Amino acid sequence: MNKKQITILSVLGLLALAVLIISYSNHWQNSFHFDDAHTINTNVYIRDIHNIPSFFKSSETFSSLPANQAYRPLVTTSLAIDYWLNGKFDPQHPFNTFYYHLSTFIWYVFQCVLLFFIFLKIFNLAKKHDWNPYLALFAASLYSVHTANAETVNYIISRSDTLSTFAVILSFFLYLYSPFCKRTYLYAIPFLLGIFIKETSAMFPFLLLVYIYLFETKATDSLAIKAINSLKKIVLPLLLAIFLIVFVLSHISSNWEPGGINRFDYLKTETFVMVHYFNTFFFPFNLSADTDWKAITNIFDDRVLIGTAFILALLFIAFKCSKNQTTKPISFGILFFFLALAPTSSLMPFAEVMNDHRIFFPFIGLMMSVVWSIGLLILKKEQKLNENPIYKYAIIAFSFLVISAHAYGTYQRNIVWHTDESLWLDVTIKSPGNGRGLMNYGLSQMSQAKYEVALDYFNRALVLNPYYAYLHTNLGVIKGALGQYEEAETYFKNSLLYGPKYPECYYYYAVFLNGRNRTAEAIQLLQTALTLSPGHVLSKTLLDQINSNPASANSKSPLLAAEELVKTTPTADNFLNLSLQYYLLKRYDDCIKACRECIKLKPDYPQAFNNICSAYNELGKYDSAIIACNQALLLQPNFERASNNLKEAKRRKGK
């Protein structure tokens, strides 16, 4: 590049940065949302920066909810640093979101800068041309303000996506631009650290394999020779990635639950989900923070056929484009898209079949393919463009129009993400079949004392998710606020039945009981919550407040209270609660005995059979566990926890 070109690119780069900053200028005070609650707001561990070493020892420090305790120590470290900075500069507001958004945004800017250089390098390898820097700048700029990316940038805990993607991109940059790092394998350090942010970083060796195969092997070599030579170069980073993935998986809490469905149903569904993701790249008009997509169970469903045909068509295009040097970036981008999606769109089933933040990483590949495809069409018309500059100006104007449209879309999505009320209202409109979305919008109304509106949304959600523990908790809260105490207690008890491992359910029931001067019972529930999650700050705070009153000093332990309760009131519910106390203390045989007593009183009690299954799983008696869970599912076919326990029993038995 000559000096004039460098000057023009510098000016355009600064303009692109200004557009990026303006497009996100209204997001700095956007609220915490969804999983931010248990990873940040109620997570006691991030409140002391000296806890950072413990983040690497246990996944229990990641979240106050046991079922969400993944092992992502560098994410938790970044949150602890943000909390510490917040305390330094704004001690009156310990959860000012500005500092969390600022750190995410800074790394995002660095990532977009690196993308420019990566795109430029790959475009030049395909076909050197003076216009390549402008194509690379357009690709990086469009990615930076792409409306779909606003979902990930706004969602604070989704920094697991932004930071892990940055780690992969930094490794690519070092590999492409530093011969020393390439020769000494130092380029691998960022992506290896990225695995401690999110497991998707482990896809880097496979992405590098494709890059090496396409751009660093000899055209005269056979396919087999190319494959072997490519594999040789990624053996070390691949082995290190496998080692770290095994290490990370071994450190995930045994309480963690992906909440997924049948693997095969999930895989079938993902074929069409990929079509949706591809469409979102071009038309990001119906973004939803929490979709209501359901799993596809029929393999002959039209959507599965369309999705399969779509995947095969793109792979065919990638294969054809790999044959020609000038079209290899198209091939690389398509394969990048699929490989980056593989961890969340293949055989590992998650609770949601799709999420918009999952496309943050794959869209890099798609951006490369699409922009280079357009670039090749423009380069073919180079002579005509030079002869008639008006066409050049039209292309430039169109490029600015596209980037401006996405910047405007991002600005609008920031408005949607501003508060819980605005976010979940958007979800109820775009995903009306999502019970969780209806519940969360109801919560935003309940916080404003709009109880009738909130209750309406809770009841609508209950039709869609009748066994959703948190929904029963919230119904208990609102019924209590309305003075309907008997109904409230029924809902609270249901929440414990459907979510026996969720500390939030115990906490809010304890709040209710404490408000009714049933302090001893509240203490028992809070102690159970803290047994489940020692880092649950709300339970700890309330328990400390109660214990500051001498009248509560001699309260019984949860187990002793439960044992005494079944003696005085031997109901099925009380025996079920006793079984849970035994389970939490790892007295699995006693847990099973209590459940048997429960079943004698109430033979059609699926929760009792599910607890038996859980206990047998811990005892290693998987055949008995399978029988118990099958009985639970026979009584309640859509009992998700029993379904998950059944899968776990079968998985352990198959080892």
Description:
The structure is a single chain. The chain is mainly α. The chain has two domains: 28-414, no CATH class; 559-655, Serine Threonine Protein Phosphatase 5, Tetratricopeptide repeat, CATH 1.25.40. The chain is 70% helix and 0% strand. The chain is built from 32 helices and no strands. The protein has helices at 3-23, 36-41, 52-55, 73-89, 98-126, 132-145, 150-154, 159-177, 179-184, 188-194, 204-215, 223-250, 263-282, 302-321, 328-341, 363-380, 382-387, 389-416, 420-430, 435-446, 451-464, 469-481, 485-498, 503-515, 519-532, 537-547, 558-568, 572-584, 588-601, 606-619, 622-635, 640-654. Helix 6 (132-145) packs parallel to helix 18. The protein is globular. The model has no long low-confidence stretch (mean pLDDT 91).
Number of strands: 0
What general form does the structure show? globular
The figure for the number of domains is 2
What structural class results from the helix and strand content? mainly alpha
Overall mean pLDDT stands at: 91
Radius of gyration: 27 Å
| Contiguous helical run count | 32
Query: What is the first-to-last residue Cα distance?
Result: 59 Å
List the uncertain runs: none
Strand content bin: under 5%
The portion of residues assigned to helices is: 55-70%
Largest sheet: none
